[in-house]
Specification:
alpha+beta; 2 domains; DUF983 domain-containing protein; transmembrane helix; transmembrane; 5-stranded antiparallel sheet; elongated; membrane; 151 residues; 22% strand
């Protein structure tokens, strides 16, 4: 899912600012020391165990005696837990931000700035700040911006 905005900068150039959801984390030099994540195998194992526990709970409920009553609050808690983690995972995916211009009518060179932000709200805020910066200062980045020029 990509969001795109066309912006006219303070110097008259037209910029395209867009953000795109990334399904894998971008590789950075900072991640080198912390590359001890469980990865895909750990996620498969956890999801398998969760599925097995769900099957066990449903089998116990359906095949158990008529005296077994699972309170509704147990089902609601299980549903909340089941929906919380996938929702959090999707909302915390990294987004790539790109601001680019083909150049101006005055012969200015094309520019491309790229960076990434983790999270939906942070990406939306960063995109708004980039648009605001372009409209007021004619540059997409500010002091602490994740956007960096790409040659």
């Amino acid at each position: 899912m990509a969001r795109i905005r066309i912006v006219r900068a303070a110097d008259g150039r037209q910029w395209m600012v867009r953000q795109k959801l990334e399904w894998i984390d971008p590789a950075t030099g900072e991640d080198f020391e912390h590359d001890m994540q469980g990865g895909r195998l750990a996620a498969i194992g956890i999801v398998s165990i969760m599925g097995l526990l769900w099957v066990a709970l449903l089998a116990w409920w359906f095949t158990g005696s008529q005296g077994v009553v699972v309170p509704i609050w147990v089902w609601l808690i299980l549903l909340a837990i089941f929906l919380f983690f996938p929702g959090r995972w999707v909302l915390r995916r990294p987004r790539t931000l790109v601001a680019e211009t083909p150049g101006g009518s005055d012969g200015s060179a094309p520019e491309r700035w790229v960076g990434w932000v983790r999270g939906t709200a942070a990406a939306r805020e960063e995109m708004m700040q980039t648009v605001r910066s372009l409209e007021t200062r004619a540059t997409p980045a500010y002091a602490d911006s994740p956007l960096q020029p790409v040659s």
